[in-house]
Amino acid sequence: MTEPLSKIPNGLRYYFGQEARLRRLIEETSMSIFEGWSYEEIITPTLDYYSLFERGMGPLEAHQAFRFTDSDGRLLALRPDVTSAIARATATLFANRPRPLRLCYAAPVFRQHGQSTIEWRRESTQIGCELVGQNSVASDIEVLAIACEVLRSLHLDSGYVITLNDVEVFNGVAESLGFDSGDRDQLRQLIDGRNVADLESFLASRASAKDGRAISQLIRLSGKFEALARARGVITDARSIAALDRLENLWRIIESLALTDHFEIDLGDVSRLDYYTGLTFKVYIEGAGTRVGSGGRYDNLTANFGKSEPSVGFVLDLDALAGLLLAGNNAAMLAAPSERRVQCLIDNDDLSALFSEVIERRTRGERVLISSGEVTP
Amino acid sequence: MTQLTIAIAKGRLQSGALELFANSGLCDTRDALSSRRLAIEDESGRFRFIFVKPMDVPVYVAHGIADCGIVGRDVLMESEADLLQPLALSIGRCRIVVAAPAGMRGGGQGMLRVATKYPHIAAAFFGARGQSVEIIELSGSVELAPVLGLADCIVDLVETGRTLHENGLSIVEVIAESTARLVVNRASYQLKAKAVGTLIAALEAARCEGVLQSD
User: Fold this and answer.
1) How do residues A20-32 score in pLDDT, each as one tens digit?
2) Are residues A63 and A51 in the same domain?
3) Which of A114, A159, A195 is nearest residue B85 as measured by Cβ atoms?
4) Domain shared by A25 and A83, yes or no
5) Are B64 and A289 in contact (CB < 8 Å)?
6) Which of A62, A77, A369, B74 has a beta carbon 3.0–4.6 Å from A54's, enabling a disulfide?
7) In A, which residues are within 8 Å of B88 by CB distance?
8) Do A284 and B187 touch (CB under 8 A)?
9) The Cα angle at residue A40 between residues A39 and A41, in degrees rounded to 5
10) Does residue A5 lie within any of the structural domains?
11) Which helix (H) or strand (E) segment is A22 a member of?
12) CA of A287, closest CA in chain B: separation in Å?
């Protein structure tokens, strides 16, 4: 039996017409904003060594990559993220460039998924930026402000929330309990899933009642500034408190920028601890059932490539943004190209006259349609 | 006003879940209890209930079509969906067990044939102890499989144990205890934080009352 030609592999699709134009517009809008903040575009290889992504994303995440063997037998992968290749470039290619580096990209990434995950796409486009070589609240705020500007420029500013956390709050708590890495990861999963019931039975045999209460509070500590105040009531180790201080500092500035409507503190957001080292944030927008972006500080990433330096960045999911704008029927974003165009009829006897007219009209910037008969627009 | 869509697992948990909503004072669910409609809005307009197969609850919630769901822990363990589960409820108490006819062979070096509606749970459970198993996925009447020789044992949900007993099976091991869970979509948890917070608090209060009464 032969496969029908119409069939395309799972998780892949065509984009055309209005949707294709919209995707291009989102990309251009974002890239021009990055440029406005002095970020330089970087285009990374579509195929790279699999080991690059293992170093960059951690083995679990890299495992989702499509893999091939190179002609010399080394394992290659279709890039499952862009950040890994950027981290390598900053540590090698750009090692001698003055810091900080500001880099941005818009590129498709490829991931395989298990049958049961709700993520069906295997090709998706990431829009992101990285600020490397500067560890300061200023750079954390810079990338948050850029994310806000992108969402505002896409007319999505009525209903988005960016949740903020610092992974050191969790790390401090886990360290004070003296957990090994297995218990630590289980604790992380339970907190990340806000799973109070299973967390309580997990901690019953591993922590004092007092510590247990402090940790179950972590799950519930989300909200505006008051969440930090409540956290100080239950969290006592120095490492966590330093993280709470950093978040408070950040929040004060967000407050002064009158952006608090768009921000929430969420100390239960501990999704990728092997990767992030300080601030983490997630972007949610009304109408999208899953998060549309995420980011944070990952100071250890470049160390995997031999040159440790502070880095912060974020990535937005172009597909999710396009989906929201399409569903929201945003007229400004969805405008079709002008219908005004000049029809140039094909005259088989004199193609040179036809095309010299067409080329002249194009030079004047007119929109032309070459046709063999009148077409109603 | 924020409306929350709640996906409720049809069947075993359905009436218990709706009673819990009524007891919590969140809304009047009498219509939903007597109706056969699959989607029903409460009078205040604060809640919309949809009734779907248990295995589909995580799907609706993960996609954000429903903001919250009420479903057994067994289904969550099986589905591996990325959901928040902020509250364990007292309804739908049952156990996920390995059951077999008396004198089952296996558990040794050989291949164990396991019939189940829960292939992930079964694979994870036996995988964790290094036991090779052949998982035979069935969609119902799992108890028949060992009786007729299709499998050596089963992994299934047990409430009273009566069905097992009547088919000559007994519990070999308990894999996990299960009760109903409130699950919440990650985006809804942030974007509808206030409504979700109110829901969690009210259900938690109602759950505690329920426990006191049953004690």
Assistant:
1) 999 999 999 999 9
2) yes
3) A195
4) yes
5) yes
6) A62
7) 196-198
8) yes
9) 120
10) no
11) helix A17-36
12) 8
Distance CA B23, CA B210 (A): 9
Structure tokens at B164: 């097992």
Closest Cβ–Cβ partner in A197, A198, A264 for B190: A264
pLDDT band at A339 (very low <50, low <70, confident <90, very high): low
Structural tokens at position A45: 């290889």
Decide if B187 and A288 are in contact by the 8 Å CB cutoff.
Answer: yes
Could you tell me the CA-to-CA distances from A264 to A141, A154, A377, B64 in Å, in that order? 14, 21, 49, 20
Kindly tell me if the per-residue pLDDT of A215 is higher than 90. Answer: no
3-state SS, residue A182: helix
List the CATH code of the domain at B94-178: 3.40.190.10
How far apart, in Å, do the first and last CA atoms of chain A sit? 43
By C-alpha distance, the chain B residue nearest A117 is B81
Count: domains in chain A = 3
Answer whether A289 sits within 8 Å of B187, measured CB to CB: yes
Return per-residue pLDDT of chain B as tens, 215 residues.
789 999 999 988 998 998 898 888 888 777 767 777 888 888 788 999 999 999 999 999 999 999 999 999 999 999 988 899 999 998 999 999 999 998 765 545 578 999 999 999 999 999 998 988 999 999 989 999 999 999 999 999 999 889 899 999 999 999 999 999 999 999 999 999 999 999 999 998 887 665 544 43
Residue-wise pLDDT for A268-306, tens only, equals 888 877 788 999 999 999 989 889 999 999 988 888 888
* Residues A86-108 pLDDT 10s: 999 999 999 999 999 999 999 99
Interface contact B191-A195, CB threshold 8 A: no
Residue of B nearest to A160 (CA): B191
Q: Check if the beta carbon of residue A139 is closer than 8 Å to that of residue A78.
A: no
Tracing tokens 């308990």 back to the chain, one arrives at B174
ipTM of this complex: 0.84
Q: Which residues of A touch B191 (CB under 8 A)?
A: 159, 161, 284-286
Antiparallel, parallel or unpaired: β A160-166 and A279-285: antiparallel
How many beta-carbon contacts under 8 Å exist across A and B? 66
What is the architecture, at CATH level 2, of domain B4-92+179-214?
3-Layer(aba) Sandwich (3.40)
